[in-house]
Specification:
The structure holds two protein chains of two kinds. By secondary structure, chain A is an all-beta fold. Chain A is 0% helix and 56% strand. In chain A, the strands form two sheets. In chain A, strands 2, 4, 5, 9, 10 and 11 form a six-stranded mixed beta sheet that branches. A five-stranded antiparallel beta sheet of chain A has the order 1-3-8-7-6, with no helix packed on it. Chain B is globular. Helices cover 0% and strands 49% of the residues of chain B. In chain B, strands 2, 4, 5, 6, 9, 10 and 11 form a seven-stranded mixed beta sheet that branches. Chain B has a four-stranded antiparallel beta sheet with strand order 1-3-8-7, with no helix packed on it. Chain B has no helices and eleven strands. The model of chain B has no long low-confidence stretch (mean pLDDT 92). Classes of the chains: A mainly beta, B mainly beta.
Amino acid sequence: GEDVEQSLFLSVREGDSSVINCTYTDSSSTYLYWYKQEPGAGLQLLTYIFSNMDMKQDQRLTVLLNKKDKHLSLRIADTQTGDSAIYFCAETRGNQGGKLIFGQGTELSVKP
Amino acid sequence: DGGITQSPKYLFRKEGQNVTLSCEQNLNHDAMYWYRQDPGQGLRLIYYSQIVNDFQKGDIAEGYSVSREKKESFPLTVTSAQKNPTAFYLCASSIDVRGNYGYTFGSGTRLTVV
């Protein structure tokens, strides 16, 4: 299909790990991204991974990339209430002027 | 500090009116983009521009128009032809016209039809 797909909701307890999953479509995507959106705000780039990497770790964030299955995941360790937000994955479409295609977003709810 | 500024933060439009949303960046980025966000639908691309005096339609361009007379500015006009304009509008820019290194987003404009 043409869409980048994510599950819509995820609820975790404070201190647990969160894993947000994404399936993308373009096998030629050079970079894949994770963005965070807090209520009423714009999107903030959290991290990105180059397509020749399998994993990238940045403090509490771990990104895993499975190119064979076109699957991207974001793991947040020791999830805090401040992590509650909507998380978007995005891929570049190299054959469409480099525009980013976003998933629908996963709303992460962290309960104390 | 460098960044993208969108104004106004909230905008109310009467039926049949055109309104213009402002987007200014001082990042010296070549490419700029307009997205529309509706609840549960993610972001949909309206228009994008990779260079001054040139722009391309995105997936939902009908009822919208843009201009790119200066590198720093990419205003979006929501015309009366847009039948359902109530949404959150996000402007973004990127240093690389191929989309590498991601986008920098503004804080958005919430448009409501009254």
